[in-house]
């Protein structure tokens, strides 16, 4: 490699690492807003609770997860190239939209300014998708991981139908309409269960290929179609609360079955190759892989339960179960697997103590959230100082994220 090419390669890695640090910063801010939301139950807070929820959720999903995933995707496909000017502009515009949402949602909720920045973000995500689909080098295009990531990006674009529909629904039918909630559920389903999930699986398949582990083409084709069919049909699980026609229950149940078959195939593949994975990965990365696998099994189990109308109604009526599930997916499965990927790709250095501190905060806070849901459901006794303990435990999350961020900035 020539001296100039080596310099460009180093600059590219540095820029990509900077993007990772920015994503971690958004995670730290989102976690801080989460603590602020917990404090509303303990002491008077000069702010609007719902507005801060909007800021918290948008910063977490779009600041942390979106930026981390898109940074990893860019790293996989363009690792030997200097960051292009067009990609830099997309990244800059994306951050302008994220900062606009971060500083407008807490003060006005969904209003003119926050809607403008939210709309800008949607266009940035479209431009990023177009950039990846158009410019990815040919050597990646026929790989299994590219097919999964390509599908994930299309799901991200497809999910945006939900936000676009909200404006029309609010101006015509109002927030009381079932279509208002269905639009939100549509967006969340194709974010959590499609864009995030398939992108993560696609990155995992890249890891498998680097370790010389691949599905044969027939096996992958079956897995791919089962997974995508299940993702689409399982959206109907989100409609059960409306008491829809019987066909909706059938489609939701079928989607669940297809997903179970697809994930059985994936876990069977991993278990067949666990010895090679253990040998090739360092012990810490392998430990993260096992933890993430357990969390994914928990996600699959909870999602599958909602195929039973009784549990679907219970989840709709009990907000703590919904929050517990969303946090299980976001703070647990998604965030931990992102830590693992970033560490494996050397985009961050993940201190073990910070990782296990984060894991402790996540697990204990999840137990407390599901405990409250069970208390409300079964009428069990509720211990005193619950909300104070929840704040103290949840504080471990921003502390550990700040630790990871600070550690990497010092090393830089």
UniProtKB/TrEMBL annotation:
Annotated TM spans: 21-41, 61-77, 89-107, 113-133, 153-174, 194-211, 223-241, 247-271, 291-312, 324-345, 357-380, 386-409
Domain of life: Bacteria
Protein name (Swiss-Prot/TrEMBL): Cytochrome C and Quinol oxidase polypeptide I
Keywords associated with the record: Membrane, Transmembrane, Transmembrane helix
